[in-house]
């Protein structure tokens, strides 16, 4: 069995990949602050260079999926030093250790490397131009990896959703459902468009790309481009909750510290062709999400 090391197994994506692939790979995972109840998990702070290289040297994985990040976009905007340390230097430490140990490396980047000014879809050939600090750190991390001359897969993805986070951090849809179940009114932004991505589907893409030896930069997301507001309404319908509790709010009214790209729609045809995996439409993704939501929150 091939060895897979998941950096950030306590996160939403890392945890899902662990759960879905534990019979196919010998899996090891790392967490920083939130120890998950999974076997073969170890604490690792990616900003500690020596610890990263020792861990890679001890485990000698065939593949590393690096799903760590300081992913709170507003926090990154207000704390540049922390964001740089974790998103740029931490990534450099992991990628360099992969190169030294000859293991393949998958890095999870973001659709926030694009500015959102384009009216058609973004392909990998479009030049990134991040408009917030989080996006900037992820793009610089991509550049650091590309300069290393190794086998890497860089994946630009969007609004992840799923229920697999082991420490109870709610993804956006889980939060919407929780609030609507409590009959709380919520305000959801109406003028930010992206392609929500079910973590189950993204995990499948990543491993098929690796297994087929397809390297490079890939845009990967769900098929449908939608506003957060419309996404919430779809969730309310599927879960039989009162959609009248969802109120629209504009980006200007929200006044968040970090700017958001207004509309990023990813062109995912390169990844679909290379992996043989198909991106899910949102309706289908929500149905799959509902099944795992029900078993996790019985
Ligand atoms: N969520 C989205 O909508 C979205 C959209 C586009 C791209 N992405 C990217 O997709 C990836 C996965 O996102 P996610 O939502 O699954 O992330 P997440 O749930 O926020 O989890 C982040 C993970 O990173 C770990 N981590 C943070 N700082 C660390 C450090 N200094 N050393 C080691 N580990 C550290 C966390 O560990 P502890 O919790 O144990 O501290 C956690 O396991 C990230 O790279 C993110 O940038 C996410």
- CATH topology description: Rossmann fold
CATH top-level class: Alpha Beta
Which bin fits the share of residues in helices? 40-55%
User: Beta-strand percentage?
Assistant: 15-25%
Corresponding CATH superfamily:
NAD(P)-binding Rossmann-like Domain
Count of discrete structural domains: 1
Number of helices: 11
**End-to-end distance, in Å?**
34 Å
What is the spatial order of strands in the main beta sheet? 3-2-1-4-5-6-11
Radius of gyration: 18 Å
Description:
Helix content is 41%, strand content 17%. The protein is α/β, with parallel strands linked by helices and 298 residues long. The chain has one domain: 3-Layer(aba) Sandwich (Rossmann fold), CATH 3.40.50. The strands form four sheets. Strands 3-2-1-4-5-6-11 form a seven-stranded parallel beta sheet, with helices on both faces. The site of NADP nicotinamide-adenine-dinucleotide phosphate has 29 residues, from helix 1, helix 4 and strand 5.
Task: Offer a few descriptive terms.
single chain; 298 residues; alpha/beta; Rossmann fold; 11 helices; 41% helix
Question: What order do the helices and strands come in, and which of them pair?
Answer:
Layout (H helix, E strand, L loop, with lengths): L2 E5 L4 H10 L4 E6 L9 E3 L5 H11 L3 E4 L6 H6 L1 H22 L2 E7 L22 H14 L5 E6 L2 E2 L10 H10 L4 E4 L3 E2 L2 E2 H13 L4 E4 L6 E2 H11 L7 E4 L1 H4 L14 H7 L6 H15 L2
Parallel strand pairs: 1-2, 1-4, 2-3, 4-5, 5-6, 6-11, 7-10, 8-13
Antiparallel strand pairs: 9-12
Bound molecules: NADP nicotinamide-adenine-dinucleotide phosphate.
What is the gist of this entry?
This protein has 298 residues and is an alpha/beta fold.
